[in-house]
Amino acid sequence: MLLSPEQISGEVYATVNREALRLGELLDHAQTLMGKTAWERWVEDSTPFDLGAARRLRAVFLGYRELSPEILENFVEPYQALWVK
Questions:
Q1: Alpha-carbon span 71 to 47, nearest angstrom
Q2: Biggest CA pair distance of the chain
Q3: How far apart are CA 71 and CA 51, in angstroms?
């Protein structure tokens, strides 16, 4: 089945949002296991992210898991929240 450009765009956004939250979840789990200082070194040495990106991914995950579905309906998408400073 061929997708329309609009459908492809929707899939791209859905994938980016889902993966941003999953990456944040993984990074949060790693920090819980290692502690902050070791986690920061690990991020710089063992991931494709710089520390700022890793912190944003983690913060987005932590923030989104606390929000109710009613709030999430009117909130920015996870990928958009990654770039808020």
A1: 32
A2: 49
A3: 28
Residue found under tokens 């987005």: 60
C-alpha–C-alpha distance, residues 59 and 54, integer Å: 9
Asked if residue 60 lies in contact with residue 24, where contact means CB atoms within 8 angstroms, the answer is: yes
Two structure tokens written together for 47: 């991931």
Domain limits of the chain?
Answer: 20-81
Whether the Cβ atoms of residue 58 and residue 31 lie closer than 8 Å to each other: yes
Say which residue the tokens 């690990």 belong to. 42
For the stretch 35-65, pLDDT in tens is: 999 999 999 999 999 999 999 999 999 988 8
The per-residue pLDDT for 68 is 85
| CA pair distance 80, 36, nearest whole angstrom | 25
